[in-house]
Design a protein that fits this description.
Helices cover 62% and strands 3% of the residues. It is mainly α.
């Protein structure tokens, strides 16, 4: 917030032609000469503006300056955080990274148009959420961890395990099998892997939605859990169709 301007004791009082009241008068009023003395009249006007209007403008300006300072303070304040917030952001980043890898295969290799649409949705939504994770980590001064399949995860929800065994994560063997598959077999494997991935991610998100300290993260996690649960159910409907 900018500080209020104060008069410099060394600065002489403005002349009539330099008066701020003359500036307020607008182009229809002369700024010097004989008309300058009419800037403040006996009726309580200032350059054509009533005293009440000048006071209202002053109050409005003070409010805007104060509001700007408030929002600057809010944006620069450290967000509430906890082990749940920070652990969820890191672990779900790795979780989403694998989902994007699987979805890239699905978007380019699936033969069923509905399956391709599912893969595209995962790419759009999870890449957007990855951007949010990164922004929230930056707010907390957290550097994303390097990918390491043995990195400890999920301790923030009292379920410690290595990254490779995190809820819903596909194994390297499963990813290799998906890449080698084609046709209807690929579609089926994609849906099964992504369904398992979503169910595991929804479980983690539900915990963060209940226990995270930051309301923004709780809201995001709750939305994520609901969306991924709904998508997993949709996948099952297509799996049933493909199996019939």
């Amino acid at each position: 917030m900018h500080p209020l301007m104060t008069a410099d004791p060394a600065t002489p009082e403005p002349t009539a032609s330099e008066s701020p009241a003359a500036d307020l008068a607008g182009p229809g009023v002369a700024r010097g000469g004989a008309d300058a003395g009419a800037a403040v009249g006996p009726t309580g006007t200032f350059g054509g503006f009533g005293l009440g209007r000048v006071l209202v403008l002053g109050v409005a300006l003070a409010f805007l300056v104060g509001a700007a300072g408030y929002f600057i303070g809010v944006r620069t304040a450290s967000p509430p955080t906890s082990a749940v917030d920070e652990g969820f952001l890191q672990d779900m980043s790795d979780h989403h990274d694998q989902a994007v890898v699987i979805a890239l295969l699905g978007a380019s290799r699936a033969t069923d148009p509905v399956v391709r649409d599912f893969a595209t949705e995962v790419l759009l939504f999870q890449r957007r959420e990855l951007g949010l994770f990164q922004a929230y980590q930056q707010e907390r001064g957290i550097m994303p961890a390097e990918y390491d399949p043995e990195r400890p995860t999920m301790a923030w929800m009292d379920m410690p395990r290595p990254l490779s065994a995190m809820n819903g994560m596909a194994t390297e063997e499963q990813l290799d099998a998906l890449e080698a598959a084609s046709g209807a077999e690929f579609d089926r494997m994609f849906l099964e892997l992504m369904q398992t991935h979503h169910v595991g991610g929804a479980h983690m998100a539900e915990y963060a939605a209940e226990h995270a300290a930051d309301a923004k993260i709780r809201l995001m996690a709750d939305r994520m859990a609901k969306n991924q649960t709904a998508e997993a159910n949709e996948y099952q409907g297509v799996l049933d169709r493909l199996a019939s």
